[in-house]
Amino acid sequence: MTYEELMQKAVEASKNSYSPYSKFAVGACVLTEDDSVYTGCNFENSSFGMTICAERNAIGSAIADGKRKIKAVAIYSPNQDNCTPCGACRQVIHEFCENDNDVDIILKNGEGLKIYTLAQLLPESWNL
Ligand code: THU
User: Which of 47, 68, 84, 91 is the most exposed place for a label (fewest CB within 10 A)?
Assistant: First the structure.
């Protein structure tokens, strides 16, 4: 699947966002090592701390399907160009990759795409 197609799936997923409190919709699409794709959207809760980001929702589906290695994540918000993953999601993506240099984070940049490696977005990542 191309990065444009991954982004299109993230766009579609953002339409299912449950974000009545922030009104900030996000969709994500994860590409795993075996070229499977998993989508997710953010879903909020009136107890604000329980909100789940789109990226972690998509990663949860991949994990539940037995996948453990992420190759790329596309992220989209209709509210913000270049919507980057929050710090928590960067660390969760890191958990499921072997090398942060090999994971692409794909953002919508105007009509095109902007691509970072996870290493660029999460330097000196935490490891146990
Ligand atoms: N959000 C995401 O879905 N992903 C991120 O990486 C950052 C933030 C969501 C959480 C919340 O529902 C809304 O965006 C505003 O913070």
Answer: 47
The predicted pLDDT at position 59 comes to 98
Angle of CA points 103, 69, 29, to nearest 5° = 65
Q: Are 62 and 93 in contact (CB under 8 A)?
A: no
This prediction's pTM: 0.97
* Owning domain of residue 109: 3-121
Kindly state whether residue 127 falls inside one of the protein's structural domains. no
Residue 102 sits in a domain whose CATH number is 3.40.140.10
| Residue 22 CA, closest ligand 1 atom number | 15
| CA nearest to 41, candidates 15, 22, 21, 23 | 15
- Around ligand 1, the residues with Cβ closer than 6 Å are 19, 22, 24, 26, 42, 44, 51, 53-55, 85-86, 89
**Mean of per-residue pLDDT scores for the chain:** 98
Distance, CA 77 to ligand 1 centroid (Å)? 9
Q: Assess if residue 128 is contained within a domain.
A: no
| Total domains, the chain | 1
